[in-house]
Design brief:
Length: 330
């Protein structure tokens, strides 16, 4: 019996446990529907395998069967990243079983996480960001909105999924702050810099009133019909202007967020502050930006360290002045 879409399995404990597991992910862990759906697909694969093996409950599954399941998944062509997520899903289900599932458990033991190469995020230079932000024309309401939207993405580092749910009440231009609801329903307050604040103020004064169709609509960013702009709508705006400046192939929905974080790091902001600004639950997620800005840090070292002279790649005469060059100063 195939279970890949519906998690069915007559005369087995799987359907009830998996329904409870999905409720647990939503209610206890506060995960988004998109993330919950990824867990559902992973667990559907496990149930399909278990029922083909005649395993009617997690407690009946042996370690050899877990290993065989993962090997089968690898042979189906799942990417290393998908296999890593699948293993994480098994561990999450294991935690649920131990805490709330009546004591049954999967024999995961010291099952290792499959390694996958982590793709470094695309990052724009400051000059490229400036070129992008200058593209919207301020002559109409949509141009004012687009300018404010792009300035907000780069100036606050919010995710597109966070930006579309911003309401008017979430923005405090007098204090230069914005309240953001992030992943897992974690709320944070992010600073709004001068340029973003100026663009937002102009949009609120001259752009949004021309887009609004109803005073009851509280969304900060509106579409051309006066409704809340969608994630697809924001991504369309970003792509349109990226194409104008030749950045379309390097642009992803998170590129301005990645650029925001990298530019902060390159200017000396502590990684833990960046973690808070981005709304990362763990600093390990934020650490990917240390790889992105490694070249910049090397350049800083070459310019600044007194013993950097002669380092490969250091132009002659560009090293720091030795503190005793002009004789001792003691």
């Amino acid at each position: 019996m195939r279970t890949e879409g519906n998690l069915n399995g007559e005369d087995s404990a799987w359907p009830g446990l998996l329904r409870e597991f999905l409720v647990y992910l939503r209610a206890e862990r506060g995960l988004s529907e998109r993330t919950v759906d990824a867990y559902r697909r992973d667990m559907a694969r496990l149930v399909d395998f278990a029922l083909r093996e005649g395993v009617r409950s997690p407690g009946e599954m042996g370690r050899e069967q877990i290993t065989a399941f993962l090997e089968e998944m690898a042979k189906t062509g799942l990417s290393p990243r998908s296999l890593a997520r699948l293993t994480a899903s098994l561990r999450a289900f294991q935690r649920f079983l131990v805490q709330d599932g009546g004591g049954e458990a999967l024999p995961l033991g010291d099952l290792p996480y499959p390694r996958h190469a982590r793709k470094l995020p695309a990052v724009l230079s400051l000059e490229e960001v400036e070129a992008l932000l200058e593209q919207p024309m301020p002559g109409d309401a949509l141009g004012l909105r687009d300018r404010a939207l792009l300035e907000t993405l780069y100036g606050t580092g919010v995710r597109i999924s966070e930006l579309v749910y911003l309401d008017l009440e979430d923005l405090d231009l007098e204090e230069g702050e914005m309240r953001v609801m992030g992943k897992g329903s974690r709320e944070r307050v992010v600073p709004v810099g001068g340029r973003a604040a100026e663009a937002l103020a102009t949009y609120l004064a001259h752009g949004r009133p021309r887009l609004s169709r109803s005073p009851s609509q509280r969304a900060l960013f509106l579409n051309s019909r006066g409704g809340r702009i969608t994630r697809q709508g924001v991504w369309g705006v970003v792509r349109k202007y990226a194409e104008r400046v030749g950045l379309k192939d390097r642009m992803t929905p998170h590129t301005l967020r990645h650029s925001y974080a990298t530019h902060l790091l390159e200017n000396g902001v502590d990684l833990r502050y960046i973690q808070e600004l981005l709304g990362h639950a763990s600093v390990s997620t934020t650490q990917i930006y240390t790889h992105v800005s490694r070249k910049h840090l090397k350049e800083v070292y070459l310019r600044s360290h007194p013993h950097a002279a002669g380092f490969p790649g250091l132009p002659e005469g560009s090293g720091p002045r030795h503190p005793h060059e002009d004789g001792p100063d003691y």
